[in-house]
Amino acid sequence: MKAAFIRKTGGPECIEVGEIPSPHLNNDSVLVRIHAVSVNPIDTYIRNGANYWPLPDPYVIGCDFAGEIVEIGKHCKEWEIGQRVWGSNQGLMGRQGTFAQLAAIDPQWLYRSPDSVSDTELAAVALVGITAHLGLFDRARLQSGEKIFVRGGTGGVGAMVLQMAKAVGAHVITTAGNADKAQRCRELGADRVILYNEESVEDVLTSEYPEGVDVFWETLREPNFDFAVRAMAANGRMVVMAGRDARPEFPVGPFYVKGCSLFGFAMFKASPTIQRQAAEDINHWMQTGRLRAQIDRIMDLEQAAQAHRLQESNTIGKSGVLQGKLVLRVDH
Question: What is the pTM of this model?
Fold first, then answer.
């Protein structure tokens, strides 16, 4: 089968696209023909040598996928050949990745695809959507009527947080770097968009939300906790999702006196049950139009290295080159 894979870690140039053996199907897995995949920052970290777990050799890159079932293991009778499915959490914890024509997947990481939603949309939403759901509802316990601040409303996870928060009736404040991105945030449902190149985020939150926000979702790799604690309401909850090597100062006194909580999590460590609950909500919201995939561009599998370069430029280089997810067509 054709796949994008690496034999050693390093820069994007380590990615090869070629033929490798098709995966072995055991009794407890299903074989999925992959139609679309998407790129996530963690894909680039693993490819670059982040030593999270041993990798298969060759290692097929990628976490997200959407496609259809073409073969079923003996113990997977609840699934059907030809059934459209999507998912994430592949290429992690030692599992083989998804940038290939075929993938053998444990059904606990499979979700049925809504008829009205395309494979490219589902692949684009997979990891970022589940991540947003885990942070908002499993950790921060966001409720209708609460105020939430999320930095970067057009980012991969930020756009999901924005839309999901609106779907449950929250008041959403976000940031954008220019007028076009600000307009996109409004179209996604943002109640207040702060143009951070033209106005101070801290001044806006202080003057317009003097009682503070109930949930503060931080996407920066180096959080400013002094600012966040000042911006949060009493009993506010903060979610951090980046900055593995960050060691910022932390205002212990103001934090505990205000009764705040801080949540960090790694999506790939969440249980299959919790991730399935997230997937069910994602399916419902996508079917009803309350959650829309944010796709910057669609590329071919042969462009996997180029896609990784773009993702690194956006994430590490902070270039702002992307306005949505990079989706790759696999079987076309």
Answer: 0.95
